[in-house]
Backbone:
């Protein structure tokens, strides 16, 4: 458990982990970024 200050300090690390996980997921699905709605920016 983190307090608010510790959580803020860990945010860059958590973002890097999430980014890597998304990258690996897209790679395993053959590069199909449509699985990530935020990347589509409202278009399909």
Residues:
């Amino acid at each position: 458990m983190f307090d608010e200050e510790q959580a803020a300090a860990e945010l860059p690390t958590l973002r890097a982990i999430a980014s890597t996980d998304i990258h690996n997921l897209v790679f395993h699905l053959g590069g199909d970024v449509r699985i990530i709605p935020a990347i589509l920016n409202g278009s399909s």
Observations:
- The first helix runs from residue 4 to 28.
- The helical segments are 4-28, 37-40.
